Structure formats: C-alpha cells, structure tokens
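User: Sequence recovery, please. Input:
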C-alpha cells in the first residue's frame, strides 16, 4: 500500500483535478457466476478508490501549502495548467508544494517501514522516486491529469470487455 502511495503521489494525485466521472452504468447480469466473481473481491478497495483517496490527500497538501481551499486550487489549476503557477499567483512557490508532498510521502514510507509492510530496499527506492514524481505533478499538472485519465478510461474499457466476456461465456 505504501509503495502505491509513494509511487502514486504524482500520478494518482491528478484525479481530483481531472474531474473523472464514470459515465454510464453496466447493465445488470443474469449470469450466476457474476455474484461469485464479485464476492471474491468483496472488501477489496479498487485501484481507482485508492487513487482517488491519495489524490484528495495530495491535493489537500498542495492547497494547505499554498494557503487556499481545495475548490479554489482545482479551479485555478484547470485555468493555469499547473499547481506551480497557482502557487506563484498566491505568493507561494511550486518548490514549497513539492517539499510538502515529499515530506508527507517520506512520513508515510517511514510509517510503513516501521510497521514492517515494506523492506529497507523498497523504502530507499520509493524515497529516490518521490521528489521527481512530486515535481512532475506540481510543474506539469495538466499533462499528468491527461495521462491519468487516459489510463483510467483504458482500464475501464478493458474491464468492461472482460466482464462482458466472462458473463457470456459462463452462462
């Protein structure tokens, strides 16, 4: 989980700014294997949910660092293209936001390491990637959003095709 937090601080953080919404619904299935499939994954928090949670946290860290509320941050990022530009307009800096994200990420890595959920080697690798990912997120926010949205939509198309195949072949 912490590996996803550290690796996802920049890439996952884009959901809050991208306004990704699920459009449409999957038709209910009459297959008897569908409940078994879904029961197997009961209680499992999906990647989208984890990503959205991490995104909210990273966006809140950025907003707090800049000194604005989250809705203002979202609106201004859409208009200006990056968190760094928003920070500059409010008398802060992109580097201050990067430093705050890295500090929170390192704290999460330390917590996971202390709990035994990751190894020292994993923690070292995560710490090495964190500043670059945070900088990319802060300086190229809209590009990161576009890439994240494309991956999200691609994954959902693949998932829908898989579910449709599983329901028709098992009936």
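Assistant: Recovered sequence (171 residues):
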């Amino acid at each position: 989980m912490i590996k996803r937090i550290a690796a996802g601080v920049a890439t996952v953080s884009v959901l809050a700014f991208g306004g990704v919404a699920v459009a449409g619904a999957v038709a209910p299935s009459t297959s008897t294997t569908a409940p078994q499939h879904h029961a197997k994954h009961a209680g499992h928090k999906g990647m989208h949910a984890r990503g959205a949670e991490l995104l909210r946290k990273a966006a809140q860290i950025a907003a707090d660092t800049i000194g604005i509320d989250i809705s203002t941050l979202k609106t201004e990022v859409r208009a200006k293209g990056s968190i760094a530009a928003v920070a500059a307009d409010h008398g802060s800096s992109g580097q201050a936001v990067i430093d705050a994200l890295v500090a929170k990420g390192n704290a999460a890595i330390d917590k996971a390491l202390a709990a035994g959920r990751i190894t020292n080697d994993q923690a070292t690798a995560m710490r090495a990637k964190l500043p670059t990912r945070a900088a990319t997120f802060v300086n190229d926010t809209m590009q990161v959003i576009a890439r994240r949205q494309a991956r999200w939509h691609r994954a959902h198309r693949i998932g829908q095709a898989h579910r449709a195949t599983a329901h028709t072949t098992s009936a």
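Residues 141-169 form the longest helix (29 residues).
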